[in-house]
Design goal:
The structure is a homodimer of 249-residue chains.
Chain A (H helix, E strand, L loop, with lengths): L17 E3 L3 E4 L19 E6 L17 E7 L10 E2 L10 E2 L12 E12 L2 E5 L8 E7 L2 H4 L17 E4 L1 H14 L3 H9 L16 E5 L2 E6 L5 E9 L6
Parallel strand pairs in A: 10-13
Antiparallel strand pairs in A: 2-3, 2-9, 3-8, 4-7, 4-9, 5-6, 7-8, 11-12, 12-13
Chain lengths: 249, 249
Amino acid sequence: MTPSINDTATDTVSATGTTIVPVAIAHTPFAEKFAIPRQPALAPAATAVIELLPPFDHPDAVNGLEGVSHIWLLFQFHQVKTEAKLKVRPPRLGGNRSVGVFASRSTHRPNGIGQSVVKLEKVEGHRLRVSGVDLLNGTPIIDIKPYVPYADAIAGARNDIAPQAPAAIRVEWEAEARHQAEEEARRLGEAVIDLTEQCLAQDPKPAYQNPDAGRRYGVQLWDINVTWHYPQPDTIRVLNISRCDIPAE
Amino acid sequence: MTPSINDTATDTVSATGTTIVPVAIAHTPFAEKFAIPRQPALAPAATAVIELLPPFDHPDAVNGLEGVSHIWLLFQFHQVKTEAKLKVRPPRLGGNRSVGVFASRSTHRPNGIGQSVVKLEKVEGHRLRVSGVDLLNGTPIIDIKPYVPYADAIAGARNDIAPQAPAAIRVEWEAEARHQAEEEARRLGEAVIDLTEQCLAQDPKPAYQNPDAGRRYGVQLWDINVTWHYPQPDTIRVLNISRCDIPAE
């Protein structure tokens, strides 16, 4: 093949598309999209297990990965049902300013593929223990790649739309809610208090909402319901921690 | 939906897979895989045009991207025909040591998706001018995402398999070859000398080969054939630059 410099090569693209299949599944604390950190690493207490699926569920497929501190997960936004649009309204812009879909990391995008870097804690056979995830429980993973610091960590890169991590909001606890959280942490063997604080510190409510103190918000982490309100606009107070009605299997 | 913490969620994964389609096509200098830099940014002279395809070929889709210095390209390794294996032999390990496919950025991988960060030079309507690419000409792009420095640039990340960029090899020119390269650079309006030097400095031949000085190597960049040899094992000497037989359209 000797393409000319003007060769558009568009005719080599399959019009019917390519089929992709999951290579792994993510088991994470996030039962719903609300309150998931908008980028990984913002919630180091968000631990997860990435379980390789057949025919990739063999330790050979991750051989050598223990020498790598971070991995990329390419995954499907499997609970996004609406069609991709050319412009989106990212939550961090307050939901009232739109940008091109390819200028954002929005979940509503052509092909519905997400990309997150997470910390690799441990390789256990065909399971990877990771932390700092921002994935919904049950997310299909379509690729796992090692982070390559000299290529992926770009010094001096600039992004005017998302120049820095969102400012954290203050999180307080009702004494009884904190006691409940400690109990659930013991039962689950998970960092319930840390994860609750890290998720809520990013203020999950839409940026344009000005909540009155009487309004209750809630989210499910693992099989726990977390309820909070805003005593002041710049403070979250956790009111209640309770087990979901549906028992764990 | 209230999944239990033991919910494997594997039953929500489609066994038939998902169809993905190209959103753009890459026009790059690389007519063949040989001599393409093993990671982007190793060859800043490798400029390319990313052309959005219908129905995404509208300036709206990249609105705001001019405030971003680097972008991720998710793409298909469209010329890789062999089946993915659990273990691969990355060129940088000399081709004789194997690691798990998910511990490498190998082109031979399940779902055949690559991920490269490139410098965004200019947004021109539905075309993006970029530099530091490592993509074959005609590569189908399946997503474009802005680089988010606070999330993507991980300070202190570690990768023992690929700890640093490959050491560069010395590149010299035959006087006549350099003169030819200057001519072709004027004709194409491209940095022919810089790109040739940057690609060859990474020593494209397989790491296990010990070339004798009589052996000739060649690669096509744009519509130019570049020929070189190794006068010593640690030096590349460019012998000839010539136009491909097939004329540009």
